[in-house]
Specification:
This protein is mainly alpha-helical. Helices cover 71% and strands 0% of the residues.
């Protein structure tokens, strides 16, 4: 267990380390070309250090309510460690996973394994898609607005979305990809939404249509938001948890405000604008990128429709976990700008600025 960092400084330390990392990377992109040997050495050393550090920093965190549901997870873990049976639950695979580990490892080892499942796939998909430039994608993931929350609070949801990303590493091998998708649904059934959205893109993959659909969702939500919440709740999705997110009373300690979240819509639009810009202004064509973007548009559009629900943030994450890769993907696949390396650094800073300002200006 990490006892060197006081609880009250645990997240501030992380976010300020991210700040210095992003600024230092920005300076590096200004001084060096992306393919220079010095830069390759820097990004690989920094990236692997960051990967190991974050897994241990998050996994070895103290057991405290300051980390949200961490305490609830440890209560369940201890019950299984003492021989408790798995109750009737929706996400049975997660509980089998937890009960199995409870018999052989300590609580902090369990959290470290969970941190590995959450963080390693972010490295894996970055390395698979971008090779020696994986660092830029990985950093975008770890400075994302929702990264910390789903590493220490919504652990099960975070692990499930990362398994989905791990599966996308094998998008050319449908069997292996399907196994990862299945594992993701065993951990958290809400993953049926991005999986279903991705399957749709295998049959229809025209971004123009999905862009229009995303835009239409905004007035539909403003005018008929309650109708969509009621409609989707009545459908049930085959999972009581999904319905519960739409109908539960809000917990003031868990979610700062309800209603139509213009700030979160603004945040969601980062990836939408990036996709629109590269596809229609820069004529970027990449089938797999179209699939990633269209999956995001479907999931985020669904969230917009139910944005007024008390726990709609749980649905927002079903698209937000893909934002980083959608924004950075074109930069690492094709040359668009004269000094593209420096442009990557500026994009990373702009993207991280939302996370940083939301903490210090909005919540702090």
């Amino acid at each position: 267990m990490n006892t060197f960092v006081p609880l009250e400084f645990y997240y501030p330390l992380y976010i300020n380390l991210c700040f210095f990392l992003v600024v230092f990377t920005l300076l590096h992109t200004r001084l060096l070309q992306i393919n220079e040997h010095k830069n390759i050495v820097f990004v690989n050393f920094s990236g692997y250090f960051l990967l190991i550090f974050l897994i241990l920093y998050i996994g070895q965190r103290p057991i405290s309510g300051i980390f949200g549901d961490t305490v609830n997870y440890i209560v369940t873990f201890d019950r299984y460690r003492l021989g408790g049976d798995i109750p009737e639950v929706n996400d049975y695979g997660w509980h089998v996973f937890m009960k199995t580990l409870a018999q052989i490892v300590s609580a902090h080892t369990f959290f470290t394994i969970c941190a590995f499942i959450y963080i390693f796939p972010l490295y894996k998909i970055s390395k698979t898609l971008f090779g020696q430039y994986w660092y830029y994608s990985f950093v975008m993931f770890i400075v994302s607005f929702s990264f910390w929350t789903y590493g220490v609070n919504g652990m099960r949801n975070g692990a499930a979305t990362s398994l989905f990303l791990w599966g996308l590493c094998y998008h050319r091998n449908k069997v292996v990809m399907g196994l990862f998708f299945l594992a993701a649904t065993f951990f958290h059934k809400t993953l049926f939404l991005p999986i279903f959205a991705y399957i749709i893109t295998n049959f229809y993959n025209n971004p123009k249509v999905f862009f229009k659909g995303w835009l239409v969702c905004i007035p539909l939500s403003l005018v008929m938001g309650s109708l969509w919440v009621t409609l989707f709740a009545s459908l049930g999705f085959g999972d009581d948890r999904l319905t519960g997110y739409l109908t539960s009373e809000v917990d003031a300690n868990a979610f700062a405000s309800t209603g139509f979240r213009w700030d979160f819509l603004f945040h969601s639009a980062f990836a939408v604008f990036a996709g629109w810009y590269f596809i229609y202004k820069k004529n970027f064509e990449d089938k797999f990128y179209f699939q990633l973007l269209n999956t995001y548009l479907i999931c985020n559009g669904f969230w917009i429709l139910v944005i007024k629900a008390n726990y709609s943030n749980r649905f927002a994450y079903l698209s937000w976990f893909m934002m980083a890769i959608i924004i950075i993907y074109p930069f690492l696949k094709k040359q668009f700008f004269k000094d593209q390396h420096f442009m990557i650094g500026k994009v990373m800073l702009a993207y991280f600025s939302f996370t940083y300002m939301m903490y210090y200006l909005y919540w702090g």
